Amino acid sequence: MKEKTSFVVNESLQLLEQNVLDKTGIPRTLLHNKAFAEFLKGERYVQPRLLIKKKSDPGYVRRDKIEQAYIEADIKAEFQRIAKEKKCTASDLYFQALLDYCCKQIKLFELNL
Hints:
The protein has 4 helices and 2 strands. By secondary structure, it is α+β, with helices and mostly antiparallel strands. The protein has a two-stranded antiparallel ribbon.
């Protein structure tokens, strides 16, 4: 069963995500599900800058835009487990997953121009 969750991103990621949605025509929910599934199948890498919590740190990635997603309960639980293991939040992981997936999709579009 899918559960509603929210996480924070920045404006740049939202613009990138919207670009991918416009080019693919897929619903946002499907894009989120694909991004999260691909993250779980991959290396589960989180960029160190996303782990910085001190807002005064020059490497801090400002996140002030809220995204909502509907995620299967088992996938949400897996993200929470990984977050605990990596000493971060599930929101950090959702951000990374969405960023990775959108970047891959944009690269594919550039190859098909």
